[in-house]
Amino acid sequence: MRNRLPVLAAVLLLAAALFASCGRKAPPVPPGAPVPAAVCGLSATVENGRAVITFSGEPCGEGARAERFLVFRCRRRLQAQPCPECPCPYSLAGSLDNPRPGGQPARLTYAEDLKPGYAYRYKVVPVGEAGVRGAESRVMSLPFPGAAPEPDAS
Prior knowledge:
Layout (H helix, E strand, L loop, with lengths): L3 H16 L23 E5 L2 E7 L11 E10 L13 E7 L9 E7 L4 E10 L12 E5 L10
Antiparallel strand pairs: 1-2, 2-5, 3-4, 3-6, 6-7
């Protein structure tokens, strides 16, 4: 019995390591749930110190119609020596519901104030029925030099 205790402990540790291993952590996708189509008609501009992200609410290519869209933002200080290879952490900036089909095709707009001295990157993710996420859009970059950077509060 004494010889089995270390073996049992090793097996339990191995099992725990396998279940806690790295990988994509996301809610399971219900079987047969349609994946929303990619975002199309995406554009980003700076207007009066605000980022304005616009895109079509209609399906683009293969896939289902999105119920809503998640807008993700990455903000980095502008530097004399930019680092395009450095990772840029994205956080959820906002969410837009997609109007019901019918009538004119929907053109959705997300806008937010920008802090001077930063570069911004945005991407949009369509979300369909049961929370199924579609493919991320291409990344839209917006440098906003404005005035000198303010001290970073984040």
